[in-house]
Design goal:
Two copies of one chain form a homodimer.
Chain A lengths: L4 E7 L13 E7 L7 E10 L3 H7 L17 E9 L9 E5 L7 E3 L3 E3 L15 H14 L6 E5 L4 H12 L3 E6 L2 H9 L5 E4 L5 H8 L4 E6 L3 H8 L2 E9 L19 H4 L3 E4 L9 H13 L7 E5 L4 H9 L6 E5 L5
Parallel strand pairs in A: 8-9, 8-11, 9-10, 11-12, 12-13, 14-15
Antiparallel strand pairs in A: 1-2, 3-4, 3-6, 3-15, 4-5, 5-7
């Protein structure tokens, strides 16, 4: 079933060097699009939210095509096919892909994929999607932990961080997560099997690191940047690997603030390294298979933070930068028919 | 010939988070020491100065034993044996090693070494000593340049930086040096064969980098830190390697300032890595042999900045942090007899 109108959120401003605000987006209603040959009309069921989306709006993430003011806001999600001019999909099929922030995308059938059987469709947006793959390659290929290593991960209760920690446990590491608030920290230790957790909102991170990692950090996987990155750099062990995955705290500042303790990489003979998931695309199938096995075996658990209502898309993205999300941030737009 | 008294400079204060000052050192005169079995009495000819010496005073360089207020200031140099109770050396021999800031060290014969024939003794303090070895291992083992790479080195007219750039040329790189002042920059391009030079005192470094490295920096060897490191991080190419060797600009600030552009390692899939020369000790002989060949073949030229007079030791160390030295900083204390 499809409506007569299609609701959309467009990019209205570039949130460069500042926090996101609702006025960075413009709401509009347009007539429903007509599918051409090989296109499908989709009904968006769930949208997925990642910090990288702010970078796309800022045009600082030069590994994706630039955005323009007035463009439909980009975002991935799960949708149901409501009309098909493609042999690849029929009405009622569930697909995932880059949909954009609109209720009824009309897209080429080549740009979306079916979802695997036996897992909830939204898993392909999180643990079996880019966040899980980011955790997998960033930790195993860049961080290269060895059994027995002390792994510390920031943003540990987030979609990527929680998977990083759990893969760390599979790899035989001791794992400490840094997250905001007692509830998230408790979840890390009691549900996910982390060996320790540090509450950056209430603990002195530098002091707690000395307590929970007395021999220093062997691998630090950073989703956050800012003071947390700096404190962890100040506590690295010899030959440590620091994986820069995200820097969500960057967005709080007018200017990104570099880590004053960077010079500790000399004293500790250590490495700070960045990566982009797209570079590992050739190895996605193998990684996806492993992640699916670990999920099936209960070795990787995930949590979804599901908000509701298309009108709330901007607010839902802002939750990520306010540290409000607890698990993979999703927005439910419509029920599957 | 030896005097009756021995002049010394002691550590009087720790220059933590600030520039060095003369009051960080205390001058004293003491009676000449008497050698015990296996010891030698030396006459210091030349002292060698390195930025790391300030770190030793601060006790932040934890790869060397801590210093105490009142200790003899540490420093390496060239000396002549004036009295020997060791079979290893006889009166008149020239040696190099950790002497300390005093005119007549009395040391175990095991702590100093003879100097090689055919090169000036002071070469073992610079291009054939720790600065040359630091350049060699930091560039070739950490930076890992490939022929055709764009190598940028900061502190390029200094003892380490000038050797880094010349080894870069041997390795087939395009080399750009960053140094302070026209005289140093001219020397890099006209004498050392650098392909370009940036004068950080008079040029806009970020703008000049775009001109001289239009395709970005493949290897950045940093002796400086601060704004220069930040500008170079902002201009790295894909898969760049940033070698952190020194951070002399750190000492200008009350607090070390981290590079705001660190997050570019993500967009450029790059690495920031630190190292300590001592970790490569097993490979010193081979590296020393190669460096000596390159010096003999005229492929590596070096420049010495020779100040004079034992009383000027503190001022001479301060020159390094004021960017005054042009080449390897030495202090001539006495003539060889």
């Amino acid at each position: 079933m499809k409506n007569d109108i299609n609701r959309q959120w467009l990019i209205a401003d570039r949130p460069v060097g500042r926090m996101l605000q609702e006025s960075d987006f413009k709401y509009q209603e347009v007539p429903l699009g007509e599918p051409k040959e090989n296109e499908v009309v989709l009904k968006t069921l769930t949208l997925s939210f990642d910090p990288a989306q702010k970078g796309w709006m800022e045009n600082i993430s030069d590994y994706v095509a630039p955005t323009q003011i007035g463009d439909l806001m980009r975002g991935s999600g799960i949708a149901q096919v409501v009309e098909s001019k493609s042999a690849k999909f029929k009405e009622g099929d569930i697909v995932s892909g880059q949909l954009g922030w609109e209720e009824f995308p009309v897209v080429s059938a080549d740009t979306v994929n079916g979802v695997p059987d036996g897992v909830p469709p939204t898993a392909t947006l999180g643990v079996l999607g880019t966040t899980g793959l980011t955790a997998y390659f960033g930790l195993l290929h860049v961080g290269r932990p060895k059994a027995g290593d002390m792994l510390v991960v920031s943003g540990a209760a987030g979609a990527t961080g929680s998977v990083v920690g759990q893969i760390g446990k599979i790899a035989g590491c001791k794992v400490v997560g840094i997250a905001g608030g007692k509830e998230k920290c408790d979840w890390l230790t009691s549900e996910l099997g982390f060996d320790g957790a540090i509450d950056y909102k209430n603990d002195n991170v530098a002091e707690r690191l000395k307590e929970v990692c007395p021999d220093g950090i062997n691998v630090f996987y950073d989703n956050v940047g800012g003071p947390v990155l700096n404190d962890c750099l100040g506590h690295i062990a010899m030959k440590a690997r620091v994986v820069i995955c995200g820097g969500i705290s960057r967005h709080e500042f007018g200017e990104t603030k570099g880590p004053n303790n960077y010079f500790n990489v000399v004293f500790r003979r250590s490495t700070i390294e960045g990566f982009i998931l797209l570079d590992y695309m050739a190895q996605f199938p193998q990684a996806g298979q492993r992640l699916a096995e670990w999920v099936r075996d209960g070795k990787i658990k995930s949590k979804e933070d599901v908000q509701e209502g298309f009108e709330n898309a901007p607010k839902t993205l802002m939750r990520l930068f306010e540290g409000k999300n607890f698990g993979k941030q999703l927005l439910k737009i419509a029920d599957q028919s």
